[in-house]
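To illustrate the input format used throughout this study, we show a single complete record. The first block contains the structure-token representation of the backbone; no residue identities are included at this stage. The design step must infer an amino acid for every position from geometry alone.
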């Protein structure tokens, strides 16, 4: 599976998955052609082993569980809205990011 899918399954960031691959706590291999293949695939068995090694509650690993993407967007607050209104009143426009 890809690094992004492995990260969602483990509930962490893709950079953490890459660090676990470098430290050999997860198993995987590179895919691609040429001298410098860029793609990385993580072995599903190594994810199961990693979860089992770091498991606290003793719950079994459910391979059929649906993984939800991690939302990185922060929720807007009244403080944020007030600050944006104050900036707008000063004539400062802030571009909205997707």
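Output of the design step:
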């Amino acid at each position: 599976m890809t690094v992004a899918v492995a990260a969602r399954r483990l509930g962490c960031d893709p950079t953490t998955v890459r660090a676990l691959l470098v430290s050999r706590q997860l198993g995987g291999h590179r895919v691609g052609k040429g001298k410098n293949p860029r793609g990385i695939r993580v072995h599903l068995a190594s994810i199961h082993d990693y979860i089992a090694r770091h498991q606290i509650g003793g719950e079994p690993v459910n391979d059929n569980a649906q993984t939800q993407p991690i939302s990185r967007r922060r929720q807007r607050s009244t403080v944020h809205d007030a600050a944006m209104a104050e900036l707008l009143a000063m004539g400062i426009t802030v571009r909205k990011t997707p």
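Structural context for interpreting the output: Residues 1-58 form one domain. Helices lie at 3-10, 14-22, 44-53, 78-89.
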